[in-house]
Predict the structure of Putative glucose-6-phosphate 1-epimerase.
Amino acid sequence: MPSTIETIDFHGQSALRLVTAAGARVIVSLHGAQVLSWIPPGGEERLYLSPLARFDGSAAIRGGVPVCFPQFAGLGPLPHHGFARTAAWSVATERSGKDFALVTLALSDSDATRALWPHPFRAELGILIEDSRLDLELEVENTGSERFEFTAALHTYLAVREVEQSRLEGLHGYDYRDKVDADRIRRDSGDVLLIEAETDRLYQDVKRPLLLREYDRSLGINADGFPDVVVWNPWVERSVALPDLPANGFRHMLCVEAAAAHRPVHLGAGESWWGRQTLVAL
Ligand SMILES: O=P(O)(O)OC[C@H]1O[C@@H](O)[C@H](O)[C@@H](O)[C@@H]1O
C-alpha cells in the first residue's frame, strides 16, 4: 500500500492525515499548522492532545505541536506565544513516496498579522514522517525591505503514561531560566530531569540530543537551528487554571519544546532562518 495524504475533518477543523506504507500516521490541522497526532508504526500515540481542547478556532488547541511565532510566551507585546498558532495556514506542498509522507503548510503576513506585527514575512512548516521519525521544520523568510526580529518555538506536548515515572536525559550542565522561581538562572546538575512539581524552564544553547525514557519506551528528541529547549509541565495547581486541560491532564503530558527564545532571531530583508525538531520513537 502506498503512503497517502488526505484532507479530513478533525473536530470540525480542516486537517490533513498522512499515513505511510509502514503504518506511521500524522494529523495536522490547518488552524495553526498544528500537528495533533503522531502515531509511529506500532500504533502508540506519542503526542498529548487534551480531551478538553477547544477546536472552535477561538483559541490555540491545547496539545499536539503548537507553532509559537513571532513571539515565544510573554517575551514581547504580542498575544501569548504569538499569532501563528491561531492563524489559518494553507497547504503549500504535498509529497509522498513508498516510505514517507511530507506536507508543507504556509502562512504569510495579512492585514490581521500586520495589525499586530508590522512586518512582511512568509513562514512554512514542513511535516515529514518516515519510519519511526517525525521531522518538523519551521522556516521564516523576511519578505519585506526592513530588518525584523522574532522568537519562536515548536511547543511539543509529548504523551507520557505517568509524568512522575518519566525521565528526561541530556540537559545536565546547561543553564536555564526558571519561570517558577522568579526567572532565576540556574544550572542543571542532575543526570536526569524528573518532573515532581510545576516545571517551566528555558534551557539555553542546548547542544545535545535528549532522551525521554518511560518504563517500556523511549523517545529521542533532537533540534537543529533552535538553540533552546523549554520544558513545561503545569502540575496540579496551574492545571486548574487552564480550562482546556482536565485536572489530571498534567500527568499524561510533558512539553519538550524546541525554541529560539533566549536571543531573538534577526532577519534582514530577503533573509531566512529555519529550525527543526526531530522525534524518534524507540
Ligand atoms: O497556555 P499557553 O499560552 O499555551 O502557554 C503554556 C505554557 O507554554 C510554555 O512554553 C511556557 O513556558 C509556559 O510559561 C506557558 O504557561
In short: The mean pLDDT is 97.
